[in-house]
């Protein structure tokens, strides 16, 4: 693979091979299962570059090679969703009788997976305070195989000290997994900082247009063989159409993230001035509890943030969101558009406790003009105040 000095050039040129596709710059969509062999001998010896659609094709190979370079990884695999990427990373290195440490602020479906599927598979799980850093050593057991991190964490956006956790983990021959969807390799070079398995819900910023569902896992040298083998044996496959949309989105990742970062910072600072707001959770703000960690390890911030309202009725919080015209109410994030939703961290915490009385509102700040988004939120707060109680 050709090496690129700067990441912007890598994003624009990685995996582009016009000479392989009749001069077309973009890799065509290769839909197919069967690949024909010219002879029995060539099939028996597997001489061809492509032998079966599920195993590889020019579409999937273009994306995996580009992401491998972007991540600085030994290899990358594709999964049909972000959650599938998370569970694939875990199960590639943890099995029956093993102990897995999970940050208490993770994406809630991972908690459900560990408590239901993981338990049925005989995996022992312990949830830990995500801000513990090197103190993770106190949670290690002889059968601990992996530490799962998510930085920043879902909903409340705590930043973890990944280098400190990785140092402890590697001293005990334990692997580190991280969900790096928020920062992406552009803003958080996770493998460089000691992570062994780096996950992205490519549905979010890699695709970038809210029109495909996809997950990726990139591995360090020590984790690659296990990941590659497990992924193959599980028969995991990503649609060539979704892969092509991800390749398209990846080309503009840098410029989109720059706008998300700028817009979200503007909105977050404005939210801090509002009387209706109890707290704003966005690592790029100096008020964030782990701001210095973010500043040390991250090169930027994405468009996802949360804030907590002052205590109010549920009707007031609903009115705030229901009245918004530029923010859609919906799951997911990472697309060009702004989104809003109300969430409650209480039911998805066990090692830490959520004791704030206000309503937590998660926002994804899109590519719109931030002044328009602020104006929309202003009228939302006006509705909120009428029903605040």
Summarize the structure.
This is Cystathionine beta-lyase. This protein is an alpha/beta fold. It contains 13 helices and twelve strands.
Query: Could you state the order of secondary-structure elements as H and E?
Result: HHHEHEHEEHEHEEHHHEHEHEEEH
Query: Could you state the CATH homologous superfamily of the largest domain?
Result: Type I PLP-dependent aspartate aminotransferase-like (Major domain)
Q: Which CATH architecture of the largest domain is right?
A: 3-Layer(aba) Sandwich
Major sheet strand order:
1-7-6-5-4-2-3
Radius of gyration: 22 Å
Total number of domains: 2
Which terms summarize this structure?
Cys/Met-Metab_PyrdxlP-dep_enz; Cys_b_lyase_bac; five-stranded mixed sheet; EC 4.4.1.8; lyase; Aspartate Aminotransferase, domain 2; 12 strands; alpha/beta; 2 domains; Aspartate Aminotransferase, domain 1; 389 residues; single chain
Describe the structure.
There is one protein chain. This protein is an alpha/beta fold and 389 residues long. It has two domains: 7-249, Type I PLP-dependent aspartate aminotransferase-like (Major domain) (Aspartate Aminotransferase, domain 2, 3-Layer(aba) Sandwich), CATH 3.40.640; 253-386, Alpha-Beta Complex (Aspartate Aminotransferase, domain 1). 37% of the residues lie in helices and 16% in strands. The chain has 13 helices and twelve strands. The strands form two sheets. A seven-stranded mixed sheet has the order 1-7-6-5-4-2-3, sandwiched between helices. A five-stranded mixed sheet has the order 8-9-12-11-10, covered by helices on one side. Helix 6 links the parallel strand 4 and strand 5. Helix 4 packs across helix 8 (221-233), helix 10 runs parallel beside helix 13 (370-386) and helix 12 runs antiparallel to helix 13. The longest helix has 20 residues, at 253-272. It is globular. It comes from Pseudomonas qingdaonensis. Its cofactor is pyridoxal 5'-phosphate.
């Amino acid at each position: 693979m050709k090496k690129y000095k700067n990441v912007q050039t890598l994003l624009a040129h990685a995996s582009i091979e016009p000479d392989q596709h009749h001069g077309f710059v973009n890799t065509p969509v290769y839909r197919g299962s069967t690949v024909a062999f010219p002879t029995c001998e060539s099939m028996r010896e597997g001489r061809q570059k492509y032998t079966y659609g599920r195993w590889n094709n020019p579409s999937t190979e273009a994306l995996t090679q580009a992401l491998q370079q972007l991540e600085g990884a030994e290899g990358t695999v594709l999964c049909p969703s972000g959650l599938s990427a998370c569970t694939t990373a875990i199960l590639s290195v943890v099995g029956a009788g093993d102990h897995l440490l999970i940050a208490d602020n993770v994406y809630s479906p991972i908690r459900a997976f560990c408590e239901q599927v993981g338990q049925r598979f005989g995996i022992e799980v312990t949830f830990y305070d995500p801000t513990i850093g090197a103190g993770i050593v106190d949670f290690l057991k002889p059968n601990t195989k992996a530490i799962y991190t998510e930085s920043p964490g879902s909903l409340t956006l705590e930043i973890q000290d990944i280098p400190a956790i990785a140092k402890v983990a590697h001293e005990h021959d334990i692997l580190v997994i991280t969900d790096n969807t928020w920062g992406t390799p552009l803003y958080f070079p996770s493998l460089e900082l000691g992570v062994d398995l780096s996950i992205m819900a490519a549905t979010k910023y890699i695709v970038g247009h809210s029109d495909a569902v996809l997950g990726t896992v990139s591995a360090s040298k020590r984790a690659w063989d296990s990941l590659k083998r497990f992924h193959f044996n599980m028969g995991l496959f990503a649609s060539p159409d979704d892969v092509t949309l991800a390749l398209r989105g990846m080309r503009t990742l840098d410029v989109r993230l720059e706008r998300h970062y700028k817009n979200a910072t503007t909105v977050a600072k404005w939210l801090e001035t509002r009387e209706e707001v109890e707290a704003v959770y966005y690592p790029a703000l100096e008020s964030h509890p782990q701001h210095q960690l973010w500043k040390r390890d991250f090169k930027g911030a994405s468009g996802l943030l949360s804030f907590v309202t002052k205590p109010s009725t549920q009707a007031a919080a609903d009115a705030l969101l229901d009245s918004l015209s530029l923010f859609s109410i919906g799951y997911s994030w990472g697309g060009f558009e702004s989104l809003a939703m109300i969430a409650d961290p209480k039911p998805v915490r066990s090692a830490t406790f959520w004791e704030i009385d206000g309503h937590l509102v998660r926002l994804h700040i899109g590519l719109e003009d931030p002044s328009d988004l602020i104006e929309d939120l202003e009228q939302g707060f006006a509705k909120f105040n009428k029903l605040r109680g």
